[in-house]
Amino acid sequence: MKKEETILQKGNNFSEWYNEILKRAEILDVRYPVKGVYVWYPYGYKLRNLIYTILRSLMDKEHEEAQFPLLIPKDELMKEKEHIKGFEEEVFWVTKGGSTELDVPLALRPTSETAIYPVFKVWIRSHRDLPLRIYQIVNTFRYETKHTRPLIRLREITSFKEAHTAHASQMDAVEQIKKAVALYKNFFDLLAIPYVITRRPEWDKFPGAEYSIAFDTLMPDGKTMQIATIHLLGESFARTFDIKYEDKDGSPKYVNQTCYGISERCVAAVISVHGEEHGLVLPPEVAPIQVVIVPIVYSSEGAEVEKVCFAVYEELKRAGVRVFFDNSDERPGAKYYKWEMKGVPLRIEVGPRDVRNNRCEFIKRNDFTRMQVPLGDVVPEVKETLKAIQDCVHERAKETFFANIYKSGDSGVGKDKSEGEMEELRRRGIVSIFLCESERCGREVEERLGVNVLGEVIYGAGGENEEKEKSEGKCMICSRKAKRVYIARAY
Ligand code: 5CA
Ligand code: ZN
Q1: How far is Cα 48 from Cα 68, in angstroms, rounded to an integer?
Q2: What is the pLDDT of residues 38-63, one digit of tens each?
Q3: pLDDT tens digit string along 362-391?
Q4: Burial 2-19 (b: 16+ CB within 10 A, else e)
Q5: Residue 471: which pLDDT band, with cuts at 50, 70 and 90?
Q6: How many angstroms separate the Cα of 175 from the Cα of each of 131, 172, 339?
Q7: Residue 76, helix vs strand vs coil
Q8: Which of 158 and 406 is assigned the larger pLDDT?
Q9: pTM for the whole thing?
Q10: Beta carbons of 286 and 192 less than 8 angstroms apart
Q11: Ligand 1 atom closest to residue 231's alpha carbon, by position in its atom list
Q12: How confident is the model at residue 300, as a pLDDT?
């Protein structure tokens, strides 16, 4: 049963929908007077915290949480040449204490390699100290010059989860990369967010890394958003910051490092991928309120209804469900609107007739279907229904996602293709093409099609089997040997 009242068409103007939803669902207040800097509302912050609780619990299995300073001395930040080349134009500087010019200017961390690795140098002595696996969840600052957007492109990233690991050998570091990929898959699966995984092009990897791996999801306007990255740093930072350990045979060796990160873009993904014209649709795993109870009271039987609602509320709370009993003075219609907007996965209605029949009514947020449930079965039925909603939301998201991944012909789609076909490529979501590794060809594709090269396909429409399909082909620009690469318009 669909409701007729809609707030906005998500498909037609995603940007407008997105901004409206952040406001009406009380996720983020964008009125703060600094560009790219925003305020979390309490409800948005609860959502953020539930998502980060999942992330923490996954991280805590093999990492330890720590916290490093926000301020980085200029000389440390400038040490690693490639790294600083990549970040130079994005750094905010603190140059004064009061009216006194600082001896050494201090950077606000754009990411924390150069804050953490001087400390790794003193922490790591012997092979027994390895592997070292640390993470922190902090704010970072980037002077972004592209169009800023709440949760998506921030100048203050408020919820930057960055992991930094050090290992005895490159083999161990690569093993860690695989574990990080598995961990992030697990994380986004729990958020019901579909993704592709690519290896970023050599010419567009993280500054200072040997290679970078990225997770991308698809936004409703057909643009992709990078939601996580994983980098093999190798020995480059270890050499710069002199991070050595004594090996079993007593010889000094450089550690081999990785780092990987996730920002509140994961919250943006949950909002954008699942939401629709009535508001948010939150996967039960991360919904601040999983069940809202709404009494339908018009008659003298009000007190009886209220009593039943309260009993159901108590029972669900005891069972560990995040439940809210809305016994405010608002009319039921206003309550529906509010909790639908906030994406509460399940609404339970209780009216006088329900009370007489010893039952209540479930309404699922994801498809508005209703079912009657005996009061005695509420707890097990709620648990089962929440699980079903979680799966359903995930399946629907995957369906849309994979329906928007296309494969171009193997014969090359370059210069001699018709404008019509080129237009197709421009308009589609994620397209796999053959592209060689040269920056020249990559940039040419980006320019001619108005897209971004995401990278070589590691995990895509074919799941793990993508590996087999991708292998051989000819670059669509230069016809040299090439691999399957995903391209898309990207945030
Ligand atoms: N030190 C590494 C790993 S922690 C690092 O900084 N990698 S990163 O630059 O790729 O950032 C990690 C992730 O943060 C990106 O994949 C992206 O999802 C997110 N991110 C990057 N810049 C911003 C930004 N300005 N606003 C919001 N999220 C961002
Ligand atoms: Zn080429």
Answers
A1: 21
A2: 999 999 999 999 999 999 999 999 99
A3: 999 999 999 999 999 999 999 999 999 999
A4: eeeeebbebeeebeebbb
A5: low
A6: 11, 5, 44
A7: helix
A8: 158
A9: 0.95
A10: no
A11: 3
A12: 77
Q: What is the pLDDT of residue 411?
A: 41
What is the band of 346 on the pLDDT scale with cuts at 50, 70, 90? very high
Q: Do 106 and 94 form a contact (C-beta atoms < 8 A)?
A: yes
Domains belonging to the chain, first-starting first, are 14-274 (3.30.930.10), 291-385 (3.40.50.800), 406-488 (3.30.110.30)
In the block, tokens 């292998």 appear at 471
Quickly tell me which residue has 């209780």 as its tokens. Answer: 350
CB within 8 A of 59, min separation 6: which ones? 65, 135, 161, 163, 183
Atom of ligand 1 lying closest to residue 229 CA: 16
pLDDT confidence tier of residue 412, bands split at 50, 70 and 90: very low
Structure tokens belonging to residue 136:
């922190």
Start-end of H helices in 429-471: 439-449, 466-470
Which of 265, 270, 272, 491 for a ligand 1 pocket mutation test, highest count of atoms within 8 Å of Cβ? 265
Candidate from 160, 184, 232, 272 with most ligand 1 atoms within 8 A of CB, to mutate = 160
CA of 466 to the centre of ligand 2 (A): 21
Q: How far is CA 230 from CA 111, 141, 153, 274, 342, in A?
A: 13, 19, 19, 25, 32
Mutate to test the pocket of ligand 1, among 158, 215, 223, 263 (most ligand atoms within 8 A of CB): 263
Write out pLDDT tens, residues 219-237: 999 999 999 999 999 999 9
Strands 430-435 and 405-407: parallel
Cis peptide preceding 69, ω within 30 of 0: no
Relative to the CA of 152, which ligand 1 atom is closest? 27
Alpha carbon distances (Å) from 225 to 51, 80, 231, 422, 429:
18, 28, 18, 22, 11
CB contact at 8 A, 191 and 286 = yes
Name the average pLDDT for the chain: 93
Q: How far apart are CA 483 and CA 48, in angstroms?
A: 37
pLDDT the model gives residue 3: 46
Task: State the distance from the centre of ligand 2 to the C-alpha of 410, rounded, in angstroms.
Answer: 14
Whether 226 is in the pocket of ligand 1, judged by its Cβ within 6 Å, is yes
In whole angstroms, what is the distance from residue 145 CA to residue 140 CA?
Answer: 16
Distance CA 246, CA 253 (A): 6
Task: Say yes or no: CB of residue 144 within 6 Å of ligand 1.
Answer: yes
CB of 258 within 6 A of ligand 1: the answer is: no
């306007």: which residue's tokens? 221
